[in-house]
Automatic annotation (TrEMBL):
Molecular function GO terms recorded: structural molecule activity
Region listing for Disordered, in residue ranges: 453-507
Classification via NCBIfam families: portal_lambda
Protein known as: Phage portal protein, lambda family
Lineage, opening ranks: Bacteria, Pseudomonadati, Pseudomonadota, Alphaproteobacteria, Rhodobacterales
Organism: Salinihabitans flavidus
Length: 507
């Protein structure tokens, strides 16, 4: 057989061979009972969304690990706020925009409970618990006295009914409370007028819905699959383990409490004879005895006392807890020590490696979800409203929308090494000073202005610091002009001046 004929032989690894290698698609004995339905994520969320949401909210309230994980999630995703740095070319206009924005953030919340960055934290918590959050833009009247007549109202996931699916009167499709036009664009949201779980605000027997245009609503959620229209709780993969772990801990506590109720057992030869510390019989007729500190009791012939020795939780309890919480942390995508607060088995290298991977995931949420779905639309709407209200004069509104959102700075395990690495990177031209400053969560232009003001104030007071131009490393804050040693002022004159000079140079 020639070489050409050998290439024309039937391929033994054809379709049947490929199927044989797809072990996950086999239907043999081990996998015979594994037949999950091929359902879209929208179907799963629509059918199980209300119950999943109710369980997630209860878990975060009642379970300590879930509550701690929720706070850690929000603190790392948002921190003290993802803040804008305008890219407007005109420096004066850029400063006016930034100052007006900073003043408006205190008025952004329609409920008046927090500021714009506090709303970001609330959105992050809702993403952890419910998987989504709705932000409604609320235009205000001029007589309301706001700097910019615009506020935001946060709406929980329950406000948009999962079961509202059908065809609207205008022919649009409604899916899980969201109205889509014929080409699949979101055109409206059908919100309930009041929360279905709030018994203090049940104004009607069946909560009715109101249609809100899509341009007034921001739907904040992390899309996991293509075409997903509603969010999935971030805590969902860990819910079952957390719930069962709670039950396991409760069972262990109840077992220990029950065992501790029985201190000992007394055996008597004559049941009618009284025994030490005997009290009245309980409801079942069984005598109960009590002991006091320092009691010395002589037992009658034939009597015996056996003390209770309840079984301990066992040596595997700690290992089981650790492995279960590791699985919970992996399901949540959070480091183990952030979920449990346990750093006994951690060191610098393990914490560093864990945080690097975790912060990559956080940066995805910061830039792909919070900044893109929340911050950018709010910035554009705020600029438009500020211009209409006469607060800003924007010659080119399109270019004014150009903005960079700066996430909060990361606090590392060893900040000194990271700062030294950043300084070396700037000196080598690998990165810019702007990038380094923005990595700390601040705007480089704001930092430069503050440094200029500090420098001018220090020079006016005659002070020199290590950050002052021309100062060498190790210089302390001293007056710029020292008194003449020979003018008789300052005690020992030359000796004090010499001592001060030596201390400044050697320090």
């Amino acid at each position: 057989m020639g070489l050409f004929d050998r290439f024309r032989r039937p391929n033994r690894g054809g379709p049947s061979g490929v199927r044989a290698r797809l072990e996950g698609a086999m239907s043999k004995r081990r996998l015979r009972g594994w037949n999950p339905p091929l359902e879209n994520i929208n179907t799963l969320v629509a059918s199980g969304g209300p119950k999943l949401l109710a369980r997630a909210r209860e878990l975060v309230v009642t379970n300590g690990y879930a509550a701690n994980a929720c706070e850690a999630f929000a603190a790392n995703v948002v921190g003290d706020g993802i803040k804008p740095s305008s890219l407007i070319d005109d420096a004066d206009l850029r400063d006016r925009v930034q100052q007006l924005w900073l003043a408006w953030t205190d008025e952004a919340d329609a409920d008046g409970l927090t500021d714009f960055y506090g709303l970001q934290a609330m959105v992050a918590r809702e993403m952890f618990v419910a998987g989504e959050c709705f932000v409604r833009m609320r235009p205000r009247r001029a007589e309301d006295g706001l700097l910019v007549p615009l506020q935001m109202q946060l709406l929980q996931s329950e406000m948009l009914p999962f079961e509202k699916t059908g065809t609207a009167a205008n022919g649009n499709r409604i899916r899980c409370g969201i109205e889509f036009d014929l080409i699949g664009r979101r055109v409206a949201y059908h919100f309930r007028r009041n929360h279905p779980g709030d018994s203090t605000d049940q104004r009607v027997a069946v909560p009715e819905t109101v249609r809100v245009p899509a341009e007034d609503v921001l739907h904040i959620y992390r899309p996991l699959d293509a075409g997903q229209i509603r969010g999935l709780p971030h805590v969902a993969p860990a819910m079952v383990r957390l719930f069962l772990l709670d039950q396991y801990d409760d069972a262990e506590l109840d077992r220990k409490k029950t065992a501790a109720m029985f201190a000992g057992f007394i055996t008597k030869t004559a049941p009618e004879d009284p025994m030490m510390g005997e009290e009245e019989a309980d409801l079942d007729g069984a005598a109960i005895a009590s002991l006091e500190p320092g009691t010395m009791q002589v037992l009658l012939p034939g009597e015996d006392v056996k003390f209770s020795a309840p079984a301990d939780v066992g040596g595997g309890y700690e290992a089981f807890q650790y492995r279960t919480l590791l699985a919970v942390s992996a399901s949540l995508g959070l480091p183990y020590h952030l979920v449990t607060g346990d750093v006994r088995q951690a060191n610098y290298s393990s914490l560093r490696a864990e945080l690097v991977e975790f912060r990559r995931r956080v940066q995805q949420l910061q830039h792909g979800v919070i900044a893109h779905q929340l911050c950018r639309p709010v910035w554009a709407r705020w600029l438009e409203t500020a211009q209409l209200a006469g607060r800003l004069d924007l010659p080119d509104p399109a270019s004014a929308r150009m903005v960079q959102w700066i996430p909060p700075r990361w606090d590392w395990v060893d900040p000194l090494k990271d700062i030294q690495a950043q300084v070396l990177a700037m000196e080598a031209g690998i990165t810019s000073r702007r990038k380094v400053v923005e990595a700390t969560g601040y705007d480089v232009e704001e930092v430069d202005r503050e440094n200029a003001v500090d420098t001018a104030r220090a020079e006016g007071l005659g002070l020199r610091y290590r950050t002052s131009p021309g100062e060498t490393q190790g210089a302390r804050a001293t007056p710029a002009t020292r008194p003449d040693p020979g003018d008789g002022a300052g005690g020992n004159n030359g000796e004090d001046a010499a001592a001060t000079g030596r201390a400044t140079t050697q320090e």
